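Run log // design_07
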């Protein structure tokens, strides 16, 4: 059986005309898939039953399903989503007065092993397909409408997995999400976050993408970054700075730094000064300073408030555009770095 959503409109037209059907049938099916997000061929009710049966004999739609949702006291909703082959990923809906943001996953597990991130302790089972990522957005958009009466305004690829190690599917998903034939969301409302894959950051520049880019920095010198993010051993800060500048030169798109504060590791004034030096080498618009969210597998702790305040004040004194990002959904393990699904089966038996 083949995934019907892997067929382009042109391929569907060829298929239907080959079956002796009118060409407009292809447009009908395409709209069912990408405008109405049908979960099965049987839902395509403007096709005759015999035609639906003929389609179903060769194709299927591997629809993503919501397996379980958890609701935080702050309004955040974490969703465990089940893929067609039984694997699970997680997404998070983060509502504010002005925005309705979904944090989406791009891999089952993760290709990397960042020491502070729950997902980093899971093996990567597989990449998510582009249509699964689209489903993820569609499901949470429907949830936002049902729960809060308004749809998504922003998408951040900051969930499970490293988006740039699933490059083709992530870009194709964004192409669908931003297409007028589908969700039609502005690419300026989408941010892709990476742990730092220099080669693929450059590729984003070559591909002239229109979405925003965030670098999960978390340490502003190579020695410390190597300790917590092994990817830095092959993608050091010098190479990342060069790649980010190349990306900006090619696209002019916004770049953000993400920096989690860990007690007695990267929270000193000296660490802040190293961050300032990195910031001044890249046309970054913002540094998000993030509260650390503890996980069982790691021994890191959140810094004391006075240490955080001193860190922020130093950045401010150096005219760094920095913002302290308070964590959301901590009571349901939905905050930054906590997505893991450790208690869920890794696949259907």
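design_07 sequence
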């Amino acid at each position: 059986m083949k995934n019907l959503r892997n067929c382009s409109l042109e391929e569907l037209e060829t298929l239907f005309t080959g079956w002796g059907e009118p060409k407009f049938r292809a447009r009908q099916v395409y709209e069912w898939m990408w405008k109405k997000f049908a979960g099965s061929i049987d839902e395509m009710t403007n096709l005759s039953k015999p035609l639906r049966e003929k389609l179903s004999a060769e194709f299927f739609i591997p629809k993503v399903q919501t397996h379980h949702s958890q609701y935080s006291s702050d309004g955040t909703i974490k969703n465990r989503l089940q893929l067609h082959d039984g694997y699970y990923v997680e997404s998070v809906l983060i509502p504010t007065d002005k925005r309705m943001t979904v944090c989406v996953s791009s891999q089952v597990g993760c290709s990397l092993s960042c020491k502070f991130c729950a997902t980093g302790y899971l093996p990567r089972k597989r990449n998510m397909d582009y249509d699964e990522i689209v489903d993820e957005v569609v499901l949470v958009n429907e949830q936002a409408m049902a729960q809060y009466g308004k749809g998504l305004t922003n998408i951040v690829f900051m969930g499970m997995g490293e988006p740039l190690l699933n490059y083709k599917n992530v870009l194709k998903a964004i192409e669908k999400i931003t297409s007028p034939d589908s969700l039609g969301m502005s690419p300026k409302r989408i941010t892709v976050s990476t742990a730092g894959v220099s080669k693929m950051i450059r590729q984003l520049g070559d591909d002239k993408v229109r979405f925003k880019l965030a670098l999960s920095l978390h340490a502003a010198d190579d020695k410390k970054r190597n300790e917590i993010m092994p990817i830095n051993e092959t993608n050091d800060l010098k190479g990342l700075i060069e790649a980010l500048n190349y990306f900006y030169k090619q696209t002019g798109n916004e770049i953000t730094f993400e920096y989690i504060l860990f007690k007695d590791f990267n929270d000193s004034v000296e660490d802040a000064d190293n961050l300032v030096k990195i910031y001044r080498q890249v046309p970054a618009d913002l540094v998000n300073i993030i509260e650390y969210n503890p996980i069982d597998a790691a021994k890191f702790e959140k810094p004391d408030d006075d240490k955080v305040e001193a860190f922020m004040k130093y950045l401010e004194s150096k005219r760094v555009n920095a913002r302290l990002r308070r964590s959301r959904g901590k009571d349901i393990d939905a905050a930054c770095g906590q997505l893991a699904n450790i208690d869920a089966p890794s696949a259907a038996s």
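The CA atoms of residues 136 and 155 lie 11 Å apart.
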